[in-house]
Specification:
Layout (H helix, E strand, L loop, with lengths): L7 E5 L4 H12 L3 E6 L2 H13 L3 E6 L5 H15 L4 E4 L18 H28 L3 E6 L13 H21 L4 E8 L5 H4 L4 H10 L8 H12 L10 E4 L10 H9 L1
Helix pairs in contact: 1-2, 1-8, 3-4, 4-5
Length: 267
């Protein structure tokens, strides 16, 4: 990817899934990567994979729900590598989804916790990164959003979907406020991606439902999203900012009748 070699970047939520795939992709492109996650052992495993592939990375344990921890994460990157150019705010708490309800039964504390991890952390990561990026001559931020932030949730992901919609708007605002100072901000909105969290306990029946409602033959892989993130962070996307790129196999662009119509046609 053009312009990535020699840069310094942070990837949050990088102990597994999309974050790990992105950290490995960026390192393969010559980025010195701070692998950040609350799961230190998982972050260290990611670093080991990067080092084994001749890349450069360090692990940083970070609770993205803590503002001091996010500030320390950014300072660690600058202290270790001398600058900061790239930030992929990817961390999210998908486990909270299991405890969500519909609106009439919503738990306000759960709502707040979901926003703390999924949206507030993206705000605070940018807050502490932007100044260093400006000092370095410019930078690029990519936030991980979700296709769920773009349509009404039929079941229980009330707070999760709303928090991801907030990430979309935050991304546009960062791009607007700091574009003239050399900062680009974009987001990726994945559809169903086979991360460890996604695969944990999913039935073949539900997985097939996801497959039927994507326009691609199968659901996504973490590497599919990592490739998009690397592109948006790179100079190849130098004229792209304030955008939400759906990396979703067409999940969000077709009629909700698609799956049933397809089945009827096949019958």
């Amino acid at each position: 990817m053009e312009g990535l070699a020699g840069k310094v970047g942070i990837v949050t939520g990088a102990a597994s899934g999309i974050g790990r795939a992105t950290a490995r992709k960026l390192a393969a492109c010559g980025v010195s990567v701070v692998v950040s996650d609350i799961n230190l052992a998982g972050a260290e495993e990611t670093v080991q994979l990067i080092v084994e592939a001749k890349g450069t990375a360090i692990a940083q344990q970070t609770d993205v729900g803590s503002e001091p921890a996010l500030a320390a994460m950014v300072e660690k990157a600058v202290a270790t590598y001398g600058a900061l150019h790239l930030l992929h705010s990817n961390a999210a708490n998908t486990e909270l989804v299991e405890h969500e309800t519909k609106v009439a039964q919503a738990d306000a504390d759960l709502w707040d916790l979901t926003f703390d991890v999924n949206a507030r952390s993206a705000l605070l990561g940018a807050k502490y990164a932007i100044g260093h990026m400006i000092t370095a001559g410019g930078g690029s931020i990519v936030n991980t959003s979700s296709a769920t932030g773009q349509f009404g949730e039929p079941h229980t992901r009330t707070a999760y979907a709303a928090s991801k919609a907030a990430v979309d708007q935050l991304t546009r605002t960062i791009a607007t406020q700091y574009g003239k100072q050399g900062i680009r901000a974009n987001a990726v909105a994945p559809g169903a991606v086979r991360t460890p969290n996604f695969d944990d306990g999913i039935s073949e029946e539900v997985l097939d439902l996801w497959r039927r409602n994507h326009l691609t033959p199968d659901v996504g892989k973490p590497e599919d999203v990592a490739n998009a993130v690397a592109f948006l962070l790179s100079d190849l996307a130098g004229f792209i900012t304030g955008q939400v790129l759906n990396v979703d196999g067409g999940l969000t662009i077709h009629s909700p009748l698609y799956s049933e119509m397809l089945l009827g046609r096949e019958a």
